[in-house]
C-alpha cells in the first residue's frame, strides 16, 4: 500500500472526454452504434462523468452530427454527462434531448478564438453569456472551458493574467465549473502552480476548477499532480489518449485515462474506475479505430495491442 502524499484529495473525479474530444477529430465517421457501445463500456468501467458529444452545427464538426441519435440510443444514464453547446440553437437541441449539463468553450488567446469560433475573445464571451444564463435558468450545470491556457501555437506563451480574465468572466456569467485547458500540451508544473494560485487570488473557488492536460511534452501527469496539490479534484482525461488538437505539432493528444487512473490509484486516491475494465474498453476502441493507443499504461497492461494494425500514419 502506498502512503498518500500530504495535501492530496482522497477522491478525484475523472472527467472522461473520449467520446467527444477524443473522437471529434477522427477523419472517418464512426457509426453511432459504436459510439454508444464505447460510452456503455466506459460506464461499465466505473467512469460516471463522461462528456458525450457536441451540439454544434454539423458543418463545424461532422463527426458529431449524430448527437441527438447518440443520446437517444443511450437513454437516461446515471452520473454526469455534459454536452458542448456554443449557441442558443445548440442549447435548444440539448434541452430537447433531456441534457442536464452543458459546456461552452472559450479561448484565452485572440488567434485561437478567431480560428475556433470566428470571433474575438470578447465577442465569444458575449455569445456565451446568454446561453449560460438560460441554461442555468433551466436548472442545468454549465462547464466553461478556457482553451490555450499555457501556450498558443501562434502567440507563444500566454500571459496568466489573460487566462485569469477569461476564467473569471466565465465564472461570473454563471459557469458552475471552469476547466483550464492546455490545448497544445506545452504547460509545465510551475505554470500550473502559478495559474491556480492567481485564480485563487482572483476569487475563483478552487473546487469549481478542473484541469485538462495534453501529453505533448510528457508533462500531463506532473501537471495533474501539481493541480491536485493546489486543491483541484476534477481532472479531464481521454480513454486511450484519444484525440488531440489539430493545431499541435505532435500527434500526442489528451492525457490518457488509463495513465491518470494508474497514478491516482498508486497515490491511494479513489476514482471509482476499474482499471481492468477500462483497459478492455480502450483496447476495444483501438480495434474499432484500427490503430494502437498511445497510452503508456495500456501498452504496459495489454500487449495484445501489438496485434492492432496501424492504419493511419503518426
Ligand atoms: Mg483535449
Question: What would you note in describing this structure?
Answer:
Mean pLDDT is 92; it is low at 309-314. It is globular and about 50 Å long. The longest helix has 17 residues, at 121-137. The protein is of the alpha/beta class and 314 residues long. The chain is built from twelve helices and eleven strands. The chain has a single domain (13-309), classed as TIM Barrel. The structure holds magnesium ion.
With strands numbered from the N-terminus, the spatial order across the biggest sheet is: 2-1-11-10-9-6-5-4-3
The total count of helices amounts to 12
Distance between the termini: 38 Å
Radius of gyration: 18 Å
What small molecules are bound in this structure?
magnesium ion
Classify the fold: give the CATH topology: TIM Barrel
**Could you say how many structural domains there are in total?**
1
Structural category: alpha/beta
**Sheet bearing the most strands, described?**
9 strands, parallel
Written as H for each helix and E for each strand, in order along the chain, the element string is EHHEEHEHEHHEEEHEHEHEHHH
Q: Would you identify the CATH H-level superfamily?
A: Aldolase class I
Average predicted local confidence, pLDDT? 92
Q: Which CATH architecture would you pick?
A: Alpha-Beta Barrel
The share of residues in extended strands comes to: 5-15%
Q: How would you sum up the global shape? A: globular
The poorly predicted ranges are 309-314
Number of strands: 11
CATH class: Alpha Beta
Amino acid at each position: 500500500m502506498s502512503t498518500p502524499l500530504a495535501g492530496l484529495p482522497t477522491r478525484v473525479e475523472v472527467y472522461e472526454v473520449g467520446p467527444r474530444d477524443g473522437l471529434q477529430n477522427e477523419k472517418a465517421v464512426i457509426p453511432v452504434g459504436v459510439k454508444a457501445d464505447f460510452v456503455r463500456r466506459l460506464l461499465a468501467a466505473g467512469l460516471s462523468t463522461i462528456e458525450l458529444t457536441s451540439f454544434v452545427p454539423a458543418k463545424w464538426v461532422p463527426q458529431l452530427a449524430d448527437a441527438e441519435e447518440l443520446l437517444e440510443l443511450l437513454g437516461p444514464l446515471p452520473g454526469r454527462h455534459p454536452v458542448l453547446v456554443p449557441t442558443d440553437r445548440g442549447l435548444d437541441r440539448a434541452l430537447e434531448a433531456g441534457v442536464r449539463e452543458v459546456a461552452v468553450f472559450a479561448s484565452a488567446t485572440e488567434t485561437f478564438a478567431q480560428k475556433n469560433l470566428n470571433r474575438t475573445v470578447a465577442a465569444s464571451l458575449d455569445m456565451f453569456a446568454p446561453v449560460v444564463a438560460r441554461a442555468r435558468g433551466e436548472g442545468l450545470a454549465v462547464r466553461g472551458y478556457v482553451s490555450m491556457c499555457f501556450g498558443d501555437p501562434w502567440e507563444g506563451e500566454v500571459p496568466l493574467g489573460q487566462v485569469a480574465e477569461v476564467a473569471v468572466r466565465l465564472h461570473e456569467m454563471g459557469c458552475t465549473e471552469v476547466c483550464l485547458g492546455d490545448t497544445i500540451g506545452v504547460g509545465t508544473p510551475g505554470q500550473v502552480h502559478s495559474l491556480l494560485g492567481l485564480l485563487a487570488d482572483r476569487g475563483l473557488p478552487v473546487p469549481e476548477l478542473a484541469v485538462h492536460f495534453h501529453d505533448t511534452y510528457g508533462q500531463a501527469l506532473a501537471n495533474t499532480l501539481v493541480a491536485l496539490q493546489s486543491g483541484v479534484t476534477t481532472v479531464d482525461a481521454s480513454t486511450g489518449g484519444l484525440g488531440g488538437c489539430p493545431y499541435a505539432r505532435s500527434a500526442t493528444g489528451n492525457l490518457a485515462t488509463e495513465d491518470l487512473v494508474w497514478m491516482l490509484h498508486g497515490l491511494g486516491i479513489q476514482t471509482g474506475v476499474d482499471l481492468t475494465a477500462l483497459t478492455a474498453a480502450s483496447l476495444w476502441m483501438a480495434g474499432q479505430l484500427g490503430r494502437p493507443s498511445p497510452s503508456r499504461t495500456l501498452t504496459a497492461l495489454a500487449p495484445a495491442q501489438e496485434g492492432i494494425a496501424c492504419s493511419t500514419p503518426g
